[in-house]
Design a protein that fits this description.
The complex is a heterodimer of chains A (about 110) and B (about 110). By secondary structure, chain A is an all-beta fold. In chain A, about 0% of the residues lie in helices and about 45% in strands. In chain A, β5 and β6 form a beta hairpin. The N and C termini of chain A lie far apart (about 40 Å). The mean pLDDT of chain A is about 90. Chain B is built from no helices and eleven strands. The chains are: A mainly beta (about 110), B mainly beta (about 110).
Amino acid sequence: AQRVTQPEKLLSVFKGAPVELKCNYSYSGSPELFWYVQYSRQRLQLLLRHISRESIKGFTADLNKGETSFHLKKPFAQEEDSAMYYCALSSNTGKLIFGQGTTLQVKP
Amino acid sequence: GAGVSQSPSNKVTEKGKDVELRCDPISGHTALYWYRQSLGQGLEFLIYFQGNSAPDKSGLPSDRFSAERTGGSVSTLTIQRTQQEDSAVYLCASSLGGLAGVGNFGPGTRLTVT
């Protein structure tokens, strides 16, 4: 079965601290994985995708097929990073299977 | 250019009534998706359109839910005989093709069934 698990509902850190949002997946085949972010009162937006191997707003995520993980990391959190983060897996039709989401709260 | 738009932004309806939610995708985007975002269930896939066809309707929760797309553009999601558990934010997204991943979500329609 295709599934995405984000074990933390809430992650609270202080500004300047490192952040790691966990994501594990279950998928038979070669997955395409994404992180989405939803800031307060804004629409859901794509943060990054694993095939691009890019860094957006200081965030990176590495696909670990052995551990079936795609954790999102940032070395120094900023207050403006406070948002809801969703990990998602794409099927071959582009349909997305989302994790339950993690609220990141960055305290001053 | 304009992004994905949805209307209405908010809809309050009485239990048992029918509602129609509209999605205007980005021009030229052939793939269109509906999702539902609710507190208990997170973000759930409902239906996928490629052009006017819906090859994947696996996420529609019951036969009260239906959707159509016309002219390869606008899509409407219809919920008949609404129930309180239908209360959620309904999101629409579009993309150039099914394999491209989806980066274009609409603002959503917040449906409240009283």
